[in-house]
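Hi everyone,

Forwarding the result from last night's run.
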Amino acid sequence: MRSVRMKDRVAFGPKGPLGVLVDPMTWRAAPYLLVSGGFGLVWFVVVTLATALAVPLVVVWVGLPLTMAAVLMWRGGAMVERRLLRAAFGVRIADPYRGRPEGGLLAHLTWLLGDKATWQDLGYLLMLLPLGLVESALSVVLWTATAMLLFVPLARVLYVLGGVDSGLVVDNWPGALLAGAFGVLLLVLTAYLVRGMAWLHGTLGTVLLGGSEEERLRASRARGIDAAESERRRIERDLHDGAQQRLLSVAVDLGRAQAKFDTDPEEARTLIAQAHAGTKAAIAELRNLARGIHPAILTDRGLDAALSGLAARAPVHVDVSVELAERPPAAVESIAYFTVAEALTNLAKHSGASEASVTVFRDDRGVVVDVWDNGIGGAAVTPDGGLSGLADRAATIDGVLVLHSPVGGPTIVRAELPCEW
């Protein structure tokens, strides 16, 4: 049965030695950890030199643009690091900066220096030197030792067959095979240590590069307000371009029919028939618009029935499991519904999946919505995309949207929606 909770899957990390070795995230993290010490050294030199040059000159006017350039440089470095952390560790960190102010040089400098995220960026770049040196040193030692041990059996084969002495030749087969076995064990240990260092580095990066919790909540609410305003404009545009125009046409037809009742009854009847058809079309458009705002079945029968209706319209078989003892608040139901609707729409358009599942359950924090499919994966949250809009919807109630979609699949979309009954 596919209707299982995400926590029962391997979505948040491999389990077992084989899992950690075959997981692409291990091999994406390993190169970054090998060179992170170099990144740390480069950023430390750049930041310290730029700051040492700019700060003493603040007493004269040329120091202001130099200071702004230095701050923008380390902000740029932090932005680069956020992208590197996403590529290496799968950690998505949004830029937490305040909006740019109006005004001249002094206003912009005050904006830069007064933003807490600016100093957190600096703290991360300075921290990257000691942290990166430790990561790189451990990585070099472990990967080198692993490679040497794994090469011993091959070196023995090359020596026996061709007399090639690589310097790692063991003079007996039991010793060579034992070295290879230790190499395999060290490979697994190294992979686990890589994942551990990646987790630690990603956590520190999230704390320092992601801004404070209060700032993240403020940004989430701001995105939610923007999403609501965008939805309001869409509804207004749909009303203006659709139902309003049809109703205006109905009013015109009825006015013309009224004028022709005495002189041309047949034409009046034709106009009334047109007005009747236009009225029905306007009602249909208003019904579709209302369904897009909040489906009637969701209000009347709840999530189970509404999600079953979505699953029935999907192009593949979708298992639906709603494990809620009672109905959550209307806002949570609405966000859960549209999360599933968008996920199934993306499934139909892009995934190439043959089956999917939708699971809704309650945990100690609220309602969790999981949508799983066995498609090709590779989905991403892009600005102004459907998944980004869902994240903004969830942010209005301090919820989060998590996407796990490695290339090759499967794809899992999880919405965690805090609420109280």
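The chain has twelve helices and five strands.

Cheers,
N.
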